[in-house]
Design brief:
By secondary structure, the protein is mainly α. It has one domain: TerB-like, CATH 1.10.3680. It is built from six helices and no strands.
Length: 146
Amino acid sequence: MFARYIPKIFSGKIRDPFSSEHDLIYALLTAGAFVAVADGRVDSAERKEAVRYIDQVIRPKMTKARIAELFDQCAQVLQDRNFADVVLEALRPVPALSLTSAVIEIAERVAAADGTLDSNEAQVIRLIRLITVALPEPHAINPSHI
């Protein structure tokens, strides 16, 4: 596989580009965490719903505890002022992987998990919809044309 050809200095920093599970989980975690932090706090019900959704829909190789840990890390990053790049990078592969409906669904489920839909959460859901529809699908570039 491709990992054999990666220099040791990049070990653990580069993932298999043919594995979409990472992109899928990252997009779902980011969408869920983005909605969760929108109202200024991350409720445990929101985290639990994101973990449950990812575990049921994706059936990832990682444990629920690891998914929850990644959710918390993502929420922490999204509370930073420079969160826009993180959101855009995570949602970039969504159209190509046909994930738009799953990303919107997890955002809506996380927003409803604590029993209230804050206006900021609704605004973030609209923004996620806009981003996932507006991002162009990636395409291969012929290196000889660069």
